[in-house]
Amino acid sequence: MGAMERPSKYADHRWVGDKRTQVVYDVDNIDEPSIIDELMDAESFICFGPDVLSEARNRGYKPYKGNGSGVETGE
Question: What are the boundaries of each domain within the chain?
């Protein structure tokens, strides 16, 4: 699976959260890039600093399937 191109506005961010659902996505490894496209169109996203999964979790976000990429990891 190849990495999708990060949204230009957030080219320096790997983890992008959906404010509507409190789900965080790993933009570099997501299995459905259309999810990120829809999120950008809806303008309901958030980025985290530092740009790590643990920071997203600290803010109450849950990863999209497993590690955020869509691939089940048993988490």
Answer: 23-70
